[in-house]
Amino acid sequence: MEIRTRFAPSPTGYLHIGGARTALFNYLFARQHKGKFILRIEDTDMARSTEESTQAILDGMQWLGLNWDEGPYYQSKRFELYKEHAYKFLEMGKAYKCYCTPEELEQRREEAIKQGKPPKYDGRCRNKKDEPGKPFAIRFKVPHGTTLVKDIIKGNVAFENDEIEDLIILRSDKTPTYNLCVVVDDATMEITHVIRGDDHLNNTPKQILMYEAFCYSVPVFAHLPMILGSDKTRLSKRHGATSVMAYKEMGYLPHALVNYLARLGWSHGDQEIFTMEDLIEKFSLENVGKSSGVFNPEKLLWLNQHYLKEGKIEELALLLIPFLEAKGYNAPADKRLPNIVKGLQERAKTLVEMADSAEFYFKEDIVYEENAAKKFLTPDMAALLDILIDRLHTLPAFTHEAIEAVFNDITNEKTIKLGKIAQPVRVALTGRTVSPGIFEVIETLGKETTIARLKKASAHCLLTH
RNA sequence: GGUCCCAUCGUCUAGAGGCCUAGGACGGAGCCCUCUCAAGGCUCAGACACGGGUUCGAAUCCCGUUGGGACCGCCA
Question: What's the predicted TM-score (pTM) here?
Answer without folding.
Answer: 0.94
